From TrEMBL:
Protein family per UniProt: Belongs to the CoA-transferase III family.
One family name in Pfam for this protein: CoA_transf_3
InterPro entries: CoA-transferase_III, CoA-Trfase_fam_III, CoA-Trfase_III_dom3_sf, CoA-Trfase_III_dom_1_sf
Name of the protein in its database record: Acetyl-CoA:oxalate CoA-transferase
UniProt source species: Geodia barretti (Barrett's horny sponge)
Amino acid sequence: MKLEGIRVLDLSRFLPGPHLAMMMADHGADVIKIEDTKSGDPARVIGPAEGGHTVYFRNANRGKRSLAVDLKSEAGREAFMRLAETADVILETFRPGVVDRLGIGYEAVCARAPQIVYASISAFGQSGPYRDRPAHDLSVNALAGIASLSVDGDGKPAMACLPPSDMGGSLMALAGILMALLRRQTTGRGDYLDLSMFDTVVSWTAHVAGRVFADGCAPDPAAERTQGGAAFYRPYRTKDGRYITLGGGEMKFVVNFLEAVGRPDLIPLGREPAGPAQALLHAFLEETFAQRTQAEWVAWFAGRDICFAPVLDLKEAFDDPHLAARGMRERDSDGASHLGIPINTAILREIGYDEAECRALVRDGIIRQSA
């Protein structure tokens, strides 16, 4: 286990932070999820439940231990600080300034635990005009220009099915934490990381920022290669009302397909820029794919060197044998998709609290045990 021996205190909520900490737990880190004593992570009550937990919560928090602590109390802050002295990483996703007001910000923690790598994930970062602005993934994407690139047939911004700034923030923060832990091996000291979901998605626009940087104008989604402007990089409707995707515009794939369907005369159109110049090729492909069902196209593409995939619904995708082969869906002995997360005072006993002190903290509402 690559992260065995690393302890993480996870103060985060919802998705970016919990997902990051779960990945560290999956690789052997001891992750302790610190929740409040009233309601805990809101993901506990969002969406369908299975086996006593919401699927959302379990899919972002498996492998963690958990402790509910009243961080507004002096005793709760002391318990957190004593945990910090044993930890390697602290992760938080509160609005900027909240942890400092609670007395558990980086400077306060570093004074007692200089080894800590302290990561703050926020919508817009710890500085800048939008620092204090509340936002989740959709609003971040809107201000980053990302929402304007995914549009429907009428040009209306479409709701993304996956949260790019949430998940991108998670992965970027994980990279920063691991780099800081690596550097700590030579310096002996931790670090502070200011991770912005906004910065993350902006940094992911390398493939669509050309018009802005080179021409000083916004891109037209309909003419962008990765937004449907390229005939060989878009979905097509099949005879049975389902869809397939062509997913690679490299000329070898264009040639392989058009020769196989007897239209090598259209190959030059595949070399044209995305957008109107490929309109005739796009129209041909729409007409062609409408002549067979999705299953018939799947059979036709088998063994051919062409980037292609059927559009599956989420249940079909989770039932797919490749997903199972990669270990991306596992069940416990009760049939649940993931294990539950125990919350217990054993965590406090590990850092020197005796049983009587633990009972007193529970009695006074400083910590809470729950399932």
